[in-house]
Amino acid sequence: MKKLLTILLILSVALVGVFAQAQTEEVAGSGTLVLYSTVYDAEYNMIVDAFQAKYPDITVECVNGGAGELKTRIKAEAENPQADAMFGGLLYSDFLSMGDNFEPYVAKNNDNMPEGFKNDTGVLTYNTIQFVNLLVNRAAAKKLGVEIDSYEDLLNPALKGKIITANPAASSSAWNQLSTILVVMGGYESDSSWNYVEKLVQNLDGVMSSSSSSVFKGVYNGEYVVGLTYEAPCVTYIEEGKGDIVEIVYPSEGITAIPFASGIIKNAKHMDNAKLFMDFVVSDDGQKLWAGSTARQANINLPTTNDVLTPAGDVKVVLRDAEYLAINQPNIVAKWQNVWSKYN
User: Fold this and answer.
1) Model confidence at 49: pLDDT above 90
2) Domains recognised in the chain with CATH numbers
């Protein structure tokens, strides 16, 4: 009799364990997920619709905003988080400045991500990347008789005053262009890189915009032959059938890819669902969705499936030292400003 009672007790404990596990799994796939999102509507709907198709019992709520605005909210709400995760808009520098505001979590597919785009901070789950590039006005370049395939080509005297860039002190795209030039032309602190910067500044001949949009718009409108810009707005021109007007050029010396991340907010109220979302955005299924959009997937090992995007494998991508750049950005920008002041 005692043996029977013991067996029944063991079975009871086991069943309770199974029931508890089932309850945990059910909770993890149901309830609410609140996102702070910087992601464009098309990409947001693409990812969230697929996530909800996989987890139909999770209701996703969203607050859209700019990266700066949403990060300020996260800090202000630290004692009582009003969202579970920030979707997009996070950079390595945010880990240095507010890493304690995010919950440590490494998504399940992290080991399959390429070097440079893995979560090595413990809190940043990289989901997309942004390429820098040149945008060339085809008719203006043909009229001038120039071919532009590289950063070196920007030093052609025929292009003096016909190149436009934004100010690295005011524009993130211009900062990313400057940091890219430094790494591909010899190194962040090398004489060869800064000698190139000095020659480029002379060929700019005083042309520098305070906004990134003025660069690609100025090239598209034919005011300038070439601009130093970033991929997203340029791809939009191609997608709209305007590839006969402008051409995207990835400099032959190489470019860098700026990774953008998501992160779980510290002490999120719906922690399990937030973890499921991080797992999804970095999963192969999630990354393949990005690969078919105009936003590039962080896992560049997967093929690009959007016809308007040049496959990542066809572009020379050079890794950035994210930590160095985050720490040294003020010094690098100050050095740029000194060079600019020397000739303007």
Assistant:
1) yes
2) 27-129+258-314 (3.40.190.10), 130-257+321-343 (3.40.190.10)
